[in-house]
Amino acid sequence: MNSLRRTLLHRPAKKIFARLFASNNNSNARVGIVGVPFEKGQRNSGVSRGPGVLRAGGIVQDLLSFGCDVKDYGDVDYKVEQPGTQVNNMLEYDDFASCMEKVSSTVKQVLSEGRLCLSLGGDHSMGVGTIDGHYQAKGDLAVLWVDAHADINTNATSPTGNLHGMPVALLVKELADYWPYLPGMDWQMPKLSIKNIAYIGLRSVDEYESLILEKFGVTAFSMEDVEQYGVHEVTRRALEAINPHGDRSLHVSFDIDSLDPIEAPSTGTAERGGLSLREGVHIMETVFASGTLGAMDLVEVNPGIGSERDVKITVEAARQVVRAGFGYKRRGMRPLLAQEIPGLIVKNSSQSEIN
Fold first, then answer.
1. Of the residues 124, 134, 251, 282, which is catalytic?
2. CA-to-CA distance for 284 and 332, rounded, in angstroms?
3. Is the dihedral of CA 232, 263, 251, 225 positive or negative?
4. With 80 as the cut, is the pLDDT of residue 341 above it?
5. Is the sign of the CA dihedral 32, 36, 37, 42 positive or negative?
6. For residues 220 and 238, what is the distance between their CA atoms, to the nearest angstrom?
7. Per-residue pLDDT at 268 exceeds 90
8. How sure is the predictor about 27, in pLDDT bands with cuts at 50, 70 and 90?
9. Close Cβ partners of 312 (under 8 Å, ≥ 6 residues apart)
10. Which H helix or E strand runs over 102?
11. Closest CA to 276 of 289, 288, 264
12. Is 310 a catalytic residue?
């Protein structure tokens, strides 16, 4: 038995993991669902259909099936407030600024009504709106960014100008001085500390992004780390780094491309060598067990990419990840007691029969 294995077996359980793998599959979570059919943060058409295909695939029914109280707030609709507004190397900026303002206010509303927020994308640029709304509702946050990519480029460093590669850089206060003035974005102030963000699943990180992660000592676990330490240990370390006392509301932004393309082929920037579906599910089971989840994004499911079978596989993977985040347990439902089984007469402690 190696030293890491010994450490895992004998480490005292932290308070925020006390509910891990509870025996009852009744979640009782109050969940608000927000669709964000936004695809202008990248160049692949089809991802705006993500919320629709995920709903049609059964995500709402999944949550209801194990006890969640679900309210669907519908899809975010927006009007471009300043048409034609442009910022260098930020494609479709005018649409982005207007849409994200509406996303932020909608997420804030969901959380203010006492529900956990599940936002269905759409591309990952929507993280600017969802996390801003979460911050406005709850204050100091911890953010777990599960992704193949770091998404922490600025407009000066992005090789593409695609906004789905910039949301983290727009959100963190440590990079505020690296941006020009952003017209139409006065509603969004970067208040999140970069120290309160952790990554899991990285395997395609640009050179500038690597420098930023290193400079600020960001908690970042690549696939190499997942393979070396195991997904449970990586997730435990990530959550303890960004939320050591369990007193911050946790925002999980889960990009489906964090999973290996074998598990989720219908996504725009697939990278081989990713998380297995089992690992993705375990991350979210651990998040739920922490008792700190406030909001979750599920992004970059693109039904316009791949075959019908590819889309079905990807949607099913997304469903399993979401279910785990809101309390579904693979151990199954609590076994019924004998007296709870309809038609079963219990004669004594060792004998029973069905009428």
1. 124
2. 16
3. positive
4. no
5. negative
6. 8
7. yes
8. confident
9. 57
10. helix 93-112
11. 264
12. no
77 a catalytic residue: no
Beta bridge partners of 294: none
Q: Does 147 participate in catalysis according to the annotation?
A: yes
What are the tokens at 151? 């998404």
Phi, psi of 304 (to 5 degrees): -85, 0
In 68-182, where do the E strands start and end?
69-75, 116-121, 141-146
DSSP codes joined into one string, 213-275 = HHHTT-EEEEHHHHHHH-HHHHHHHHHHHH-TTS-SEEEEEEEGGGB-TTT--SSTT--SS-B
Q: Give the model's pLDDT for residue 1.
A: 40
Q: Answer whether 257's CB lies under 8 Å from 271's CB.
A: yes
Residue reference for tokens 């060598």? 273
From 149, 263, 279, 297, the catalytic residue: 149
Domain ranges of the chain: 14-354
Return the bridge partners of 270, or none: none
The per-residue pLDDT for range 303-335, each reduced to its tens digit, is 999 999 999 999 999 999 999 999 998 887 544
pLDDT at 138 over 80: yes
On whether the CB atoms of residues 226 and 276 are closer than 8 A, the answer is no
User: Distance between terminal CA atoms of the chain?
Assistant: 53
Six-digit token string for 113: 């009504």
- Identified catalytic residue from 75, 94, 257, 271: 257
- Cα separation, 250 vs 227, in Å, equals 25
Q: Which fold has domain 14-354?
A: Arginase; Chain A (3.40.800)
Give 147's DSSP letter: S
The structure's pTM equals 0.88
